[in-house]
Structure formats: C-alpha cells, structure tokens
Amino acid sequence: MKIVKLLSVCIVFVFGFSAGINAQPAVKETANWKRLTLGKQTFELHNVTGEIIKFQGKKVLKIERDLNAIPFDANNIEKTVDEPHYARLLGLDDFENGTIEIKMYSQIQNPPPYPGVAGFIGIYFRVKEDDSAFESIYVRPKVGRVSNQLFRNHAVQYISYPHFKFDTLRKIAPFKYEGSAPVALNEWITMRIEVNGETAEMFINDMKYSTFIVDKMLGTNKKGGIGLYVDIGTIGYFKDLKVTRRALKVKQETGNKVDDI
C-alpha cells in the first residue's frame, strides 16, 4: 500500500439569478499552468488562481475559481459550473481505488458574484490527463445546517464530468446523487472519500459511518489524477491532504438488504 501524504495545499439548491457574465464555457488549453510547491509537494492550478499563505497559523493552499479562464453565465448554469477548475496534485496520475482525505475551509467572496453562492468545495478524482473526464464529490457548506431540510438535502453533490453534472443528475435521478452533511462555512471540514471500484463513500469530520455513498459511479475513466476543487464565489483553503492507494476490495454485504421503503 503506497501512501502519498501532503501538507496543505460550490451550485446551491436555488439558482435564481438575474445577472452574470454572458459567455460560453471554454476550458483554457495551455501547458503553462501555474505551479505552487509546499515542501516536496507540487500542485498545478487549472483555471483557478491561488497562492500558499499562512492561515490560522499554518501554511495552506488558497484557491479561487478564475472567471477569466472559464467565464460564468448565470443564464447558462449547467454549462458554466462543475468544470475543470481545480488544483491538480502532481506526481500521482493513476489513482484508481483507495482513500483521499483533505481538510478544507470554505469562505464566500465579499461581495459574492451572485446571490446563490454556497461555498462549493471538494475533491476531483480519476482526472484524465487532459481534464476531459473526472469524478467528484463536493459540498455546499452554506446549506449544511440550515433549518430547511429540503436545502440540507443538497449539501453534498456527486458529479461525473463531462456528461453528468449537477443539473443533469437532478433531472434524471432527483436526490440520488445528493445528500445532507453537517458542514458549514468558515470552519474546517475533514472530508474523506473511500473509492472502491464503482462505489465512493464520503465521511465527514472523522465520523465512524459514511455520510454519503455513490453506489455506482457514472464515469468511464477508471484511473487518473486528484484535484482540489472550488467553484463560483468560493475562497477555498486546503491542508493535510493524504492519499492512500489500495487494490480493489470485494465487499460483503453487512447491513440489511433494502429493496424499497
């Protein structure tokens, strides 16, 4: 078992915007991505701006989505969010199964670029070299602890780029690829994702049991890179990234079989 340890390096339920940048999505194609190094670890910034800063006494990676690289259009949400805007970990391009763990902290830009920002922050994995496909689980911390259960149910999101972004999944399988999690803005969140074959489970803040599970991921790319993700309106801080690669494990059913409720 090979462990890669790293030190420091959002999409809400309601999208009722009236203003935005009217532009078609365009992934910036360049080999000159900015790189940031912390110790022996290097991250490559794909369509995000970033820097290494000292935050709450520790060096972290701070990133924000670069709207010049991939413009945002409030009238064309599906095509201009959940794109390849992330910090890519270099030196690990064949992650298939195992554990990804990160501590992350989400703030909302002031002023926010539009009313619906929710602090979108999370992880990309199995990222193709050319950014043309990846899996992702991310959270919307703004709605994680609100008093409205319907909004809470959108606190976690799975997507599979490019064909199954958040809006498409809401239309074809409402609530199947979203869930709740006890997350909030302006506090550290520990996210751990256990990837095994077609399944991915997310654990929050070292809880014993998973908060969210994708029982069958939708992507066809089975191995690739790992990245740290933010979306429109988020200032994201990341630290203590740990990646553990494992062989595929055949799981045995441990709970009661449920066919319907």
Ordered list of secondary-structure elements with their pairings:
Elements (H helix, E strand, L loop, with lengths): L2 E3 L28 E5 L2 E6 L1 E8 L2 E8 L11 H4 L5 E4 L8 E11 L12 E7 L6 E6 L9 H4 L3 E6 L4 H7 L5 E2 L8 E9 L2 E6 L7 E3 L10 E6 L3 E12 L16
Antiparallel strand pairs: 1-16, 2-3, 3-6, 4-5, 5-16, 6-15, 7-12, 7-16, 8-9, 8-15, 9-10, 10-11, 12-13, 13-14
Q: What attributes characterize this protein structure?
A:
261 residues, mainly beta, Jelly Rolls, 8-stranded antiparallel beta sheet, 3 helices, disordered N terminus
How would you characterize this protein structure?
It is a single chain. The chain has 261 residues and is mainly beta. The protein has a single domain, classed as Exo-inulinase, domain 1 (Jelly Rolls, Sandwich), CATH 2.60.120.560. The protein has three helices and 16 strands. The protein has helices at residues 77-80, 149-152, 166-172, and strands spanning 3-5, 34-38, 41-46, 48-55, 58-65, 86-89, 98-108, 121-127, 134-139, 156-161, 178-179, 188-196, 199-204, 212-214, 225-230, 234-245. The strands form two sheets. Strands 1, 4, 5, 7, 12, 13, 14 and 16 form an eight-stranded antiparallel sheet that branches. An eight-stranded antiparallel sheet has the order 2-3-6-15-8-9-10-11, with no helix packed on it. The radius of gyration is 17 Å and the shape is globular.
How many helical elements? 3
Unreliably modeled segments: 2-29
Helix content: under 10%
CATH superfamily, by name, is: Exo-inulinase, domain 1
The end-to-end span amounts to 39 Å
* Shape-level CATH architecture: Sandwich
pLDDT averaged over residues: 88
CATH top level label: Mainly Beta
